[in-house]
Recover the amino acids of this structure.
């Protein structure tokens, strides 16, 4: 996406929309997970040296599996995995897989939104793979206001200053393109972008990302029945000794 140019919005025709009309009880919305294939050395690198690259990848896979399971449990018209890499055994059925493209994270998010819009203009909520503690109820809480029209956007702030979820009633890649990512003020800047666009934003609870060994152990303790917690327990406690 050179020079931060926006992808064209391609709105599906009426025939495509008719095929996507939800059954009773199904939310007319899309849930998308933004993820990387859990390959050692490419995911959760901040968990090292407490964990080896291979162990960090195991934790990433468990976190991704928990996230996908939560998304799969929400009754929506479409579930999407925007993936950098190749799907593995951890991917449950019922997901459309699209390849990530673009350079920085803001570009990859913008392209994922644009690619989702090609198939459906339905409200869309996206989440990363760093919050395995997310629940189907919390995801539904993010989707429902967009479907009902009581909010134009839903936003989940992260403890580290970023954000763990963003939902849009009308998909617009421009709302994320150009927002500086992976900074302490990313969440504030993204929220300001939404407000500047005149959107009614509904906030969700603040969650912690899995970025450090301490955060991994804290999140695992809070979700003892999760795949992530089981993997943390299997790998054992990790204490870094800092030489003086």
């Amino acid at each position: 996406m050179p020079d931060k140019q926006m992808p064209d919005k391609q709105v599906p025709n009426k025939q495509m929309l008719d095929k996507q009309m939800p059954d009773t009880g199904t939310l007319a919305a899309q849930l998308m997970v933004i993820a990387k294939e859990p390959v050692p050395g490419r995911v959760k690198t901040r968990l090292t040296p407490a964990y080896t690259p291979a162990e960090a990848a195991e934790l990433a896979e468990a976190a991704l599996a928990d996230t996908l399971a939560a998304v799969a449990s929400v009754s929506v018209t479409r579930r999407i995995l925007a993936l950098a890499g190749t799907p593995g055994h951890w991917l449950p059925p019922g997901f459309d897989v699209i390849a990530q493209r673009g350079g920085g994270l803001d570009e990859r998010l913008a392209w994922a939104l644009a690619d989702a819009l090609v198939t459906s203009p339905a409200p869309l909520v996206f989440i990363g793979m760093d919050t395995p503690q997310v629940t189907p109820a919390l995801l539904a809480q993010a989707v429902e206001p967009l479907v009902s029209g009581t909010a134009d956007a839903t936003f989940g702030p992260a403890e580290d200053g970023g954000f763990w979820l963003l939902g849009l009633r009308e998909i617009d890649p421009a709302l994320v393109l150009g927002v500086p990512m992976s900074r302490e003020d990313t969440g504030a800047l993204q929220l300001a972008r939404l407000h500047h666009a005149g959107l009614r934003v509904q906030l969700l609870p603040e969650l912690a990302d899995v970025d450090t060994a301490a955060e991994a152990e804290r999140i695992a303790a809070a979700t003892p029945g999760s795949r992530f917690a089981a993997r943390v327990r299997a790998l054992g406690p990790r204490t870094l000794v800092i030489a003086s």
Remarks:
- The two ends are 47 Å apart (CA to CA).
- Helices lie at 14-19, 53-72, 105-119, 136-148, 186-196, 213-222, 227-235.
